[in-house]
Amino acid sequence: MTSQRMTSPRKQRHPTFRLPAMLAISLLLATTFGHADTSWPTTADGAEAAGFSVATIDRLDAAMEKIVADNDVAGMVWLLAKDGQIATYDSAGFASIEDQRVMTKDTLFRIYSMTKPITGVALMMLHEQGLWDFDDPVSKHIPEFADLEVVLNYDEAGNIELGPVTRQPTMRELLNHSAGFGYGLSGNDPVNDAFRELEVLASPDLNALISRVSNIPLMYQPGDEWVYSVAVDIQGYIVEKLSGQPFGEFLAEHLYAPLGMTDTAFYVSEADRERFADVYRWDSEQGKLMRNPPRPDRPSYLDADRLESGGGGLVSTTHDYARFLQMLVNGGELDGQRILSPESVETMRTNSLRDGLLLRGGDNRPGQAGQGFGVDFAVIFDPEAARSKQGEGTYYWSGAAGTWFWIDPVYDMFWIGMIQSQGGNRPGAANMRQIAIDIIYDELNN
């Protein structure tokens, strides 16, 4: 069978009125959860309160400050917590070099793919209500996917052989990126080319996104390979469909409000614009950091009608994401608010890839030994094989503009690093992620 040009209708958009995210969530907190104190974390409790030596945390802070001083990034906020105590919570540099806006603890960041675990938690909340099961075919919840095909062969001349799927991809595979979907972020193959041609990630809303994806074949048979994909945007659509609420509204009501995540949303209100960090890249010709211009093919982050992308659309703060991660560390609860059961959190952070399938494998890549994937988290299930200093079961992810986090359940510990860097690094730039791990675990493992 030869490929046909894949097209998809654009859904007509209608104007909507929305309260600014911060105001809407504040109202929810006041009316639904009373006057619960959700200010934590505000400052560090100190190295010793969290079980570290002062020397270790001083060394960690100095290393992060040097990364900023060396112009590897314009600015950074970092936080390390252990046993519910904050060992360090600090910032350095600028949110905007040109505007001389200093990076602060309440700076807003594009967290991109760190949106994914939030979407996964939302979907697991609906699993606890019995609204879906891991072995469900995805097409049970998205009938538009009932007739998906898969690429069998293709050549450089543009000839593509498509065939039927051996079976429908399951929800479990959708959650661990082995369902076979593409993404369009990289790859020179018919599937990723089609994602870019149909502008899937620039869809005006989730209905349009699903319509476009339904016209694109799978890259592989379901379960055959781990392929980083549009799967979590699809999950956001499923949350919307099963809950009967717009995706962003569901998150605000059932996750942000009870956790006190007052600054997390799919857009930035005009009132919060001054807190929104710019994104920088290293310009080799000029020998300095340069601010990235806004993307012309996507709505502004100040547009409340932006796509509610479960795979990469959220803006958040270090404070908000710390509360989200501490909820997971606590087994699904924070400050008396139960979000998930401990069993659901355990499921999320447990590798669910079939035997022999490894994170980032495929296309003749061997994959990362000792690492797999759970529900929207990568999981280090064998630290020795992964050559990791971190504890068994450490789960993590990151964002396209450099934000990153990990949770180590062995030590009841998590880390957040917030930066905005995309498009090129300074030659010889420090590996900030590994530096943080080395300093933290040099004390814990000795």
Question: How would you classify the helix and strand content by structural class?
Answer: alpha+beta
Reading the helices and strands in chain order gives: HHEEEEHHEEHHHHHEEEHEEHEEHEEEH
Which range does the strand content fall in?
Answer: 15-25%
The shape, in one word, is globular
Domain Beta-lactamase-related: 60-436
InterPro entries: Beta-lactam-related, Beta-lactam/transpept-like, Diverse_Enzym_Activities
Protein name: Beta-lactamase-related domain-containing protein
Pfam family, one: Beta-lactamase
Structural description of this entry:
This protein has helices at residues 21-32, 54-69, 115-128, 138-141, 171-175, 190-197, 206-213, 231-243, 247-259, 318-329, 342-348, 383-386, 432-444, and strands at 75-82, 85-96, 101-102, 109-110, 149-154, 160-164, 280-283, 288-291, 315-316, 333-334, 337-338, 371-373, 378-380, 394-398, 404-408, 413-418. By secondary structure, it is an alpha+beta fold. The chain has an 8-stranded antiparallel beta sheet with strand order 3-2-1-16-15-14-13-12. Pfam families: Beta-lactamase. Residues 60-436 form the Beta-lactamase-related domain. This is Beta-lactamase-related domain-containing protein.
Topology:
Elements: H1 21-32, H2 54-69, E1 75-82, E2 85-96, E3 101-102, E4 109-110, H3 115-128, H4 138-141, E5 149-154, E6 160-164, H5 171-175, H6 190-197, H7 206-213, H8 231-243, H9 247-259, E7 280-283, E8 288-291, E9 315-316, H10 318-329, E10 333-334, E11 337-338, H11 342-348, E12 371-373, E13 378-380, H12 383-386, E14 394-398, E15 404-408, E16 413-418, H13 432-444
Antiparallel strand pairs: 1-2, 1-16, 2-3, 4-9, 5-6, 7-8, 10-11, 12-13, 13-14, 14-15, 15-16
